[in-house]
Amino acid sequence: MVAPAQNLKINGERLWDxxxxxxxxxxxxxGGNNRQTLTDADAEGRALxxxxxxEAGCSMGLDQMGNMFARREGSDPDALPVYxxxxxxxxxxxxxxxxxxxxxxxxxxxxxxxxxxIRTRHPIVVTxxxxxxxxxxxxxxxxxxxxxxxxxxxxAYAREDxxxxxxxxxxxxxxxxxxxxxxxxxxxxFFELHIEQGPILEAEGRDIGVVxxxxxxxxxxxxxxxxxxxTGSTPMPMRRNAGLGMARVLEKVxxxxxxxxxHAVGAAGHIDVYPNSRNVIPGKAVFTVDFRSPDLSVIExxxxxxxxxxxxxxxxxxxxxxxxxVGGFDPVAFDKGxxxxxxxxxxxxxxxxxxxxxxxxxxxxxxxxxxxxxMVMCPCVDGLSHNEAEEISPEWAAAGAxxxxxxxxxxxxxxx
Length: 416
Known about the structure:
The chain is 35% helix and 22% strand. With 416 residues, the chain is α/β, with parallel strands linked by helices. The protein is elongated and about 80 Å long.
């Protein structure tokens, strides 16, 4: 395969301007974004992305999960496309770059190819995967999971948010439910650019993370049921306090994760306590325990110990407890050929780089099951993400997009 010329780079100012324009849609309250999946803001962001893609001469495909596919044709109509992309949806208190950099970095590849008149043998397709975050509709990476055959479409459509609204209904409501069968597309390869969401690259002074593996993840939703009662008139020995039960279980979560230090982690980020009134002892607590490790046996051990320890705590307190695994995936080893393409691109362009294991889940983790896949990462300030204060520099964004450009275009094969 012919690599792009060493001096060929994307337009960093245009990429940054696109990031800032997208950030105006679904603004947060502290400088970030709240563009949760299948909201009106999500629909508006999708419309802007489609507009930009059509202006770049692309056709837009849309499948039944709302996944968007902007295609730039190659010289060979029978050649398998090279896919690139990420997601446009955000956390409720999300930053401006998580996911969005990967989608708009992919768009910048197409714009740069148009600017330079370069043709590739293989088509290039930029993808926006629906509901990567999994905040409104669990689990995360829902639509890429359906694409890869991990979940059924009917199951995904039936997922409900906190208000009882169903995924399928909301997808149709915002007008982004396509007719294309999910997972019908074949890929030559898939590349995803993302901010690191961790502190390693910045601390090591490296421009690029070459992602070789992804941590495995397990989400277990725990429901503890006690009895609502008045906080002032119920004697302490007669209480069935679901909130206290949750607190004791969460102490065990910390203990379990620390027992597998330094690579395992665990916490509960999603917590609901009912009835959530100042003078009522909680009768129910619902929370999701997030365990992660690059070792599958460690994840399985943490899951098992959570159930045993939580059951024992609740039995001792007269509480009922139920467990539901609501998300997860095994540790991922990305395709060696695609990883090499990323590493070679970083070296060719003179960027400092290092191998990384991704601590977060990404759509690439599911797509790796159906196509050769790799990821490119750039630093983020203090490793902060899933926070409106998330920040990267224009230089970091450009470096990541340049490596992405070279890896994708080399894989798509320059014509002439």
